[in-house]
Amino acid sequence: MFRVAGAGSAARLGWLTADDLLGRAERGRAAWLRSVLEKGPAWAIEVEAWAAAAGISRRTLLRAKADLGALSERRGGAWLWRLPDPAPMPDSRG
After folding, report:
1. What share of the chain is helix, strand, coil (3-state, %, to 5)?
2. Fewer CB in a 10 Å sphere around the end CB: N or C, the chain?
3. Cα(38)–Cα(24) distance, rounded to whole angstroms?
4. 77/50 Cα distance (integer angstroms)
């Protein structure tokens, strides 16, 4: 596969590397997981099932979880995944 770099008469073709393609796929997986967890905490077993149904391997899911900084909490013998709390905004009043 290739990509077009530049614009107009300066445009040129460049080959996509495996890292380019994998990086896009990994960002897509992280975006998928973010969209799931933005709705609120979810049980890990359910997230894993949804990911499998979407064609995302467990290993890839765990990498996406780490990339997002998603947190795990043990509740009643099961794991709950959630996004970290947003950082507080600095006080702009000076």
Report:
1. 45, 20, 30
2. C
3. 21
4. 20
Q: Domains, the chain, ranges and CATH?
A: 20-82 (1.10.10)
Q: Identify residue 81 by its one-letter amino acid code.
A: W
Q: How far is CA 90 from CA 40, 83, 84, 87, 93, in A?
A: 24, 20, 18, 9, 9
SS3 90: coil
Residue range 2-46, pLDDT digits in tens: 455 555 666 665 665 555 544 555 566 788 999 999 999 999 999
Show the tokens assigned to 74: 């043990």
Is residue 61 a contact partner of residue 51, using CB atoms and an 8 Å limit?
Answer: yes
In this prediction the pTM is 0.65
